[in-house]
Write a sequence for this structure.
């Protein structure tokens, strides 16, 4: 069952747990902010629900609590960060802060980060730049999940692209896997016992898997050697544009693992403690092109014109960021949504670490 | 009927025609190079076949022969170019040269160009950077063609994204409309009297149009007020990822029209002589991140691993740029493919301009 919990209280609990792991106050505050931000924007798959995975990685040493991200090469407009397998969210915030500083000083900042960890939603980091009046972009690679067009084996990660740009009444945020859906969406449908509504998963390269009871094929999604994988954005045939999603996934790989000399999708194994995903962070100051207010106003007007187009009866036209803004207003007032199973996981972690969770979940 | 023509001879004919319009030798050489390059790479829709459209625009003054692109604002890493409605290819080459120069000096160059013209394939400009060992990107907006998710009226252009990166045995080139297919693909299928093989066109927001005889709906594709449009990459429903192609189209709009304060998709009308598409050109030097050779070798190996994956029986796994490399080898040896109708159009133009075409089409 899903219940609502006050976001400020839950944030304090996350803070206390991360402090108990040995993270500093500043670090714990940052992690708590990313996770609660994510739940507040209605993206429950990547919020506190992920704490159990991170807990597992902190315990087995895949996430190294005392690691600090380090700039190993830089210019006025670029940096390569080696994250030394620290917590992904902290590496992400650090790397985007570097990109933002460079963009404010020199117009552009491009940072590529290796040996990182799972960093939650890419849109969080893109939005950091937008909050400072900049264009922000971020991507991460991930273990093999997506089928290259005509291949029967997954190779490319779900490799999301996030892009944020200041706009009124709220920031434009695009944050999308380059596969048709991310891995987590399949799990959500399986938990809900619903069949997949479109060609999200294919076996043998182009045979759709829809049945949520097809445990054989769906379980194999996590196995890079299996003949099952996620469809790229654009499906599995060139007629529907499969090669486009697949190609966008490769472009993400360039900005993350290739430029940083980090681990590529096929080199990332969840079990291997010596590898971690690679990520990219870009900030661009619109002021290098023109008057920032004029640019933002023109963009806001462009987006508003889209919202006001004639729509299919009963449907709403959303611009990217609209749904998240609606979710935020709701969650801020009524609490974030946490299912009982996730809550139990968090309580178990807290208990083990000697953190009193009771005051925060009442 | 389609026949083969020697690419060097045809390039000379194009050169002579553009010289006769009043373009300088240098300009005529550049235009001829872009058009023949495109045909050599098997992208006939955007090669010499486009000369009749440009001819029309040169005659009615939409393309201004004597205009020169001008940098109206710049920093070390950026420029805004006003193209003053000169020929798109010349604006594109100029703008990408500016981006390349900045990337060589400062690591990154981002150029956004307004009041340009139809510039052919975006990949040409991305490849200019790759030929100099850099990462290249280019995009253009275009008049309304793509349906925003749930909208019944087109609004966003087909807004392609091109990305090129040096690799062995040849450059990785991604060049794709953010709609499932570009407008030209529909025309090709109609000419071939073949039904559309996938959801490329929708009416009333989400009703597929497949019938190539459906002139009513397909003719309306060019009418921004009609209830017909191209599907975004990802189709017309959120389940298939429609919002992703739609969002990528908006991102292209930011880098082209929004940052340059140029004309947005809805402001571009083919009939209006005072408007033109907006474009973007990005060059990034991989050397700011690490050893260029090492990066290129690692990327080449990554791509080769994809080519060697197990494939659907009878299908080949292509990496972006492979098909173009195959077409290039063929056309370079056996000639570029030009249909009789296009050849006739070129002969008519040559005749009017007093250019002797006979020596070049034998």
């Amino acid at each position: 069952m899903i219940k609502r919990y006050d976001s400020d209280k839950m944030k304090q609990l996350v803070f206390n747990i991360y402090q108990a792991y040995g993270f500093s106050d500043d670090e714990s505050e940052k992690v708590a902010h990313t996770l609660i931000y994510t739940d507040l924007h209605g993206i429950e798959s990547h919020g506190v629900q992920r704490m159990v995975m991170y807990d597992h990685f902190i315990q087995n040493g895949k996430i190294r609590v005392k690691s600090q991200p380090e700039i190993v090469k830089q210019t006025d407009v670029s940096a390569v960060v080696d994250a030394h397998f620290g917590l992904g969210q902290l590496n992400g915030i650090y790397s985007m802060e570097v990109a933002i500083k460079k963009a404010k000083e020199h117009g552009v900042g491009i940072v590529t980060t290796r040996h990182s960890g799972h960093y939650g939603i890419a849109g969080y980091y893109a939005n950091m730049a937008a909050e400072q009046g900049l264009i922000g972009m971020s991507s991460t690679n991930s273990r093999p999940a997506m089928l290259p067009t005509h291949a029967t084996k997954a190779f490319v990660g779900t490799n999301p692209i996030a892009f944020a740009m200041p706009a009124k009444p709220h920031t434009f945020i695009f944050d999308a896997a380059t596969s048709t859906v991310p891995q987590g969406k399949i799990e959500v449908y399986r938990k809900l016992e619903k069949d997949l509504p479109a060609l999200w998963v294919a076996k043998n390269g182009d045979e759709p898997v829809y049945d949520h009871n097809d445990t054989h094929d769906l379980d194999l999604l996590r196995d890079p050697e299996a003949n099952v994988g996620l469809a790229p954005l654009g499906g599995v045939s060139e007629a529907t544009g499969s090669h486009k999603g697949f190609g966008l996934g490769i472009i993400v790989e360039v900005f993350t693992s290739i430029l940083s000399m980090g681990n590529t999708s096929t080199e990332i194994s969840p079990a291997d403690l010596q590898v971690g995903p690679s990520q990219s962070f870009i900030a661009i100051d619109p002021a290098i092109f023109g008057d920032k207010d004029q640019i933002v106003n023109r963009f806001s007007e462009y987006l508003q014109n889209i919202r006001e187009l004639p729509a299919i009866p009963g449907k709403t036209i959303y611009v990217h960021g609209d749904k998240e803004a609606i979710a935020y207003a709701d969650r801020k007032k009524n609490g974030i949504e946490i299912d009982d199973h996730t809550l139990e996981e968090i309580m178990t972690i807290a208990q083990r670490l000697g953190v009193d969770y009771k005051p925060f979940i009442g």
Remarks:
- Chain B touches chain A through 79 residues (CB under 8 Å).
